[in-house]
TrEMBL record:
Protein's UniProt keywords contain Endoplasmic reticulum: no
Enzyme nomenclature, EC number: 4.2.1.46
Any Pfam family the entry gives: GDP_Man_Dehyd
GO BP, sorted A to Z: nucleotide-sugar metabolic process
Domain of life from the UniProt record: Bacteria
Classification via PANTHER family: DTDP-D-GLUCOSE 4,6-DEHYDRATASE-RELATED
Gene Ontology molecular function: dTDP-glucose 4,6-dehydratase activity
Protein known as: dTDP-glucose 4,6-dehydratase
Species the sequence originates in: Rohdeia mirabilis
Domain NAD(P)-binding stretches: 7-309
Keywords: Lyase, NAD
Length: 357
């Protein structure tokens, strides 16, 4: 597939910013446009020098706005050589339990608006990034496969399952070139500290309590974010149109094991571990069968959990300023400080950088 430009939605988020860095490094000839609404989980600081050098064109906008989406697609240039990598989503399960409506708006309505605009523009390919949570919960054995039943347990998972089905429908109804990925739990640099691993690292380093849901024996398959991003690039370029690919890390651990490993690696005390009331509908176990992507596309994770967890802890130690600004809310000022002061176009693209690569 001849790709010259890519629109990455949600590119200022955790996985999105890591993906932007990977694409910039591995595909130096591609034009990269990022569309992000900069909600609480969006952080332009995570894109760093890619914005300062103009390597990435940033557009502040909402996937629920057809005008914002069309403007970002137009910035990519020739639609026949443009791909969309759709990561923009509300993704925190606890927040979806409090209110499911923002998840329906962004994950379902936003995905349909993006699909319609991309298809109308003649975009070459649409990669939709989803989660293994659409499959529901597993017992002590078994794995999620691409043909596993869709049985979401939380409003978040239900909204992602809905968006997956809309993407499939665009392919089967309109012949739109789409691919879907469903990944296991990610961890690594730039992760917002409401998720398990960055929260535990931050609290362990501060001597704060380490809250563990229920009995701590809920099992997840952990995928290092760099592995995930490499898989996304592989699927974008070589995945079969209309297909779904599961992406897993081959690292299954109960949550309490993760917390104890972080305690040991940071020198924290086990006394910091506190068990708290379990959240409603908490799935017991997730596990991915990634045979399809390995056999068809030759992808498998490069990092084991034993290798990547220390890398993640070291990153948070070395980037305490980033973490402090996220936890205090000061990161929200980054956009205004770096761009609004210089002047921006109406749609959020930094002035004078509309054609930068």
């Amino acid at each position: 597939m001849d790709i010259a430009s890519v629109l990455i939605t949600g590119g200022a988020g955790f996985i999105g910013s890591n993906l932007v860095h990977l694409v910039a490094r591995e595909r130096p000839g591609w034009r990269i446009v990022v569309l992000d609404a900069l909600t609480y989980a969006g952080n332009l600081e995570s894109l760093g020098d890619l914005l300062e050098t103009g390597r990435v064109e940033f557009r502040k906008g909402d996937v629920c706005s057809r005008a914002d989406v069309e403007s970002a697609l137009a910035a990519c240039g020739d639609p026949a050589t443009t791909a969309v990598m759709h990561l923009a989503a509300e993704s925190h399960v606890d927040r979806s339990i409090q209110s499911g409506l923002p998840f329906v708006e962004t994950n379902v309505v936003g995905t349909q608006i993006l699909l319609d605009a991309a298809r109308a523009a003649g975009t070459a390919r649409f990669l939709h990034v989803s989660t293994d949570e659409v499959y529901g919960s597993l017992g002590p054995t078994g794995y999620f496969r691409e043909d596993s039943p869709i049985q979401p347990s939380s409003p978040y998972a239900a909204s992602k399952a809905s968006s997956d089905l809309l993407v499939r429908a665009a392919h089967h109804t309109h012949g739109f070139d789409v691919v879907i990925t469903n990944c296991s739990n990610n961890y690594g640099p730039f992760q917002f500290p409401e998720k398990l691993i960055p929260l535990m690292i931050a609290n362990a380093l501060e001597g704060a309590p380490l809250p563990v849901y229920g009995d701590g024996k809920n099992v997840r398959d952990w995928l290092y974010v760099e592995d995930h991003c490499e898989a996304l690039l592989t699927v974008l370029e070589r995945g079969r149109s209309g297909e779904t690919y599961n992406i897993g890390g081959n690292n299954e651990y109960p949550n309490i094991d993760i917390v104890e490993r972080i305690v040991s690696a940071t020198g924290a005390s086990k006394d910091q571990i506190t068990y708290v009331k379990d959240r409603p509908g908490h799935d017991r176990r997730y596990a991915i069968d990634a045979t399809k992507i390995r056999d068809e596309l030759g992808w498998s994770p490069r990092f084991t959990f034993e290798e990547a967890l220390p890398l993640t802890i070291d990153w948070f130690r070395s980037n305490k300023g980033w973490l402090d600004r996220v936890r205090s809310g000061a990161y929200r000022d980054y956009y205004a400080q770096q761009y609004d002061a210089r002047g921006s176009t109406a749609d959020g693209a930094p002035a004078g950088r509309g054609n930068s690569k």
